[in-house]
Amino acid sequence: MRIEYHRTLIADRVRNEAFARALAAVIRRGETTVADIGAGTGLLALMAARLGAREVFLYEAAEVAGVAAKALKANRVRNAQLMPCHSTEMVDPPKVDVVVSETLGNYPFEEHIIDTLNDARRRFLAPGGVIIPRRIEQFVTPVVSERIHTELSAWDETGFDLSAAKTMSLNNIYVRTLAPRELLDGGAKLWDAVDFARENRSTRKGEAAWKLSAPATVYGFATWWSAELTPGIVLSTAPGAERTHWEQLYFPLLTPIAVKPGETVAVALRSRTSQDGGTHVAWAATRLDAKGRAQQRQALDLDKGFLP
């Protein structure tokens, strides 16, 4: 059991307070029913019960469900039921007023929250019910600091040609904390958005481009997400935002791209996630001259770098 991972969730005050405020905004004492999907140790379900939910259903397939059962008993929660299965496996689930699921990763969809909430909206949610989170947006910006690129280029320092290994390293995504000063000033752009009030595709793709007014060297791209839990309550993993246990993602380039004033650097990202197939991500960067003609292109793919 990955109990240390669950401890990091419990220790994340920013995450916990945001979800507590979101639940408080939608729970009517003695009336609201709640489904906590991917309940883990049961913290969000305990919050919902304390806020006065009439009934709470916990869905957790992993071994940690046993910990959640003990937590319910220790806290004398009598209006909660633990379903030791993945929510998508549940036959004829009870309808609820609120579905809450904190199954978010550094890449927000790596725990398959899209498929999970597509199913929950169709089968779990009562008419007029709400889903938490209600919306997720993904942002991207060029990284103009060489710090992480230098780290990933250690292969060059051996005195041997380890370029094959270096290429494999760069076809990976890295969880890192980036400072705003390491990013293109004012460069954050939205590349993807998911509204859980409707059906969503688990295959995502998007693009962004930046026309530079000053010279810059781009070493890779940083991405992060912002989740609107309920109206006005937002949880963000952006650089400069209040720290959580999540971090930003760094998408490397094979070689740095030097961009002149008037030129444009663009990135295209795509991903697909599924319970059976896991997470697949690819990204491509292009430098265009002042007339919009492509001068340089690099394409990378997690499938070319990841070794199980």
CATH level-1 class of the largest domain: Mainly Beta
Main sheet specs: 6 strands, antiparallel
Given the structure, what is the number of helices? 7
Strand content: 35-45%
Distance between the termini: 20 Å
Corresponding CATH superfamily of the largest domain: Hnrnp arginine n-methyltransferase1
Shape: elongated
Query: Based on helices, strands and strand pairing, what is the structural class?
Result: alpha/beta
CATH architectural grouping of the largest domain: Distorted Sandwich
Helical fraction equals: 10-25%
CATH topology of the largest domain: Hnrnp arginine n-methyltransferase1
Would you identify the regions where 5 or more consecutive residues have pLDDT less than 50?
A: none
Instruction: Tally the beta strands.
Output: 15
Secondary structure blueprint with pairings:
Elements (H helix, E strand, L loop, with lengths): L2 H8 L2 H14 L6 E5 L5 H8 L4 E5 L5 H10 L5 E4 L12 E5 L12 H11 L1 E8 L2 E9 L3 H6 L10 H8 L3 E3 L12 E7 L7 E9 L4 E15 L2 E4 L11 E12 L4 E11 L3 E11 L5 E8 L7
Parallel strand pairs: 1-2, 1-4, 2-3, 4-5
Antiparallel strand pairs: 6-8, 6-10, 7-12, 9-13, 10-11, 10-12, 13-14, 14-15
